[in-house]
Amino acid sequence: MAKKKPAKKAPAKKAPRKKITSLAKGKSKKAVAKRSASSKGKKSTAKSKKSEEKEKNVKKANAIENSQKKKPAAKKRVKVATSAETNGLLDSIVEGMQEKKAKNITVLDLHNIENRIADFFVICDADSGTHVDAIAGSVEEEVMKRTGEKAYHSEGHQNSEWILIDYVNIVVHVFLRETREYYNVEGLWGDAEIRTIN
């Protein structure tokens, strides 16, 4: 008798794989919602902490700024002086210029000009930058010695072509000759009374 071949078994069908979800793990929908809400809450609290920190920093900066002494407003160019004091200052300036052999000393009286920035301009010129420096130094020294006044402002010492010394009521201009011709300050203030010293 012939042996029967065992019947082939049909391959077993694999059951479809189920996705494992939090529900399958035994967690409820409420737990999932809580977890997502708490992660959103963490993000929002992190943002709010950052904004609170930023506000604190701004408040600190404002407190520091307000606690520091505020700089006073720029002083106005106002100087009350009698005509005798002004004339004494004018004489000292001219004396300082003559001491160092300044050339073409000119005094411009600006009293009759409506929008003037000073009462007088005193202008002179020199042959070289060294000479310009020497004249400006002599003017400041002579004024300090005779009147005790210090210049309100002084500039132009770097290039020594035009040094301006501001005594508020009187402004001194010490020029290199070519620079004086180029800027022609006397021509700009043509309405002033011009007096030549030498």
Task: Please explain how this structure is put together.
With 198 residues, this protein is of the alpha+beta class. It has a domain at 83-196: Beta Polymerase, domain 2, CATH 3.30.460.10. The chain has helices at 29-67, 83-99, 129-147, 177-183, 185-188, and strands at 103-109, 120-126, 153-155, 162-166, 170-176, 193-196. Helix 2 packs antiparallel against helix 3 (129-147). The protein starts with 28 loop residues before the first helix and ends with a strand. The model has no long low-confidence stretch (mean pLDDT 78).
Please provide a brief summary of the model:
This protein has 198 residues and is of the alpha+beta class. Helices cover 43% and strands 17% of the residues. It has a domain at 83-196: Beta Polymerase, domain 2, CATH 3.30.460.
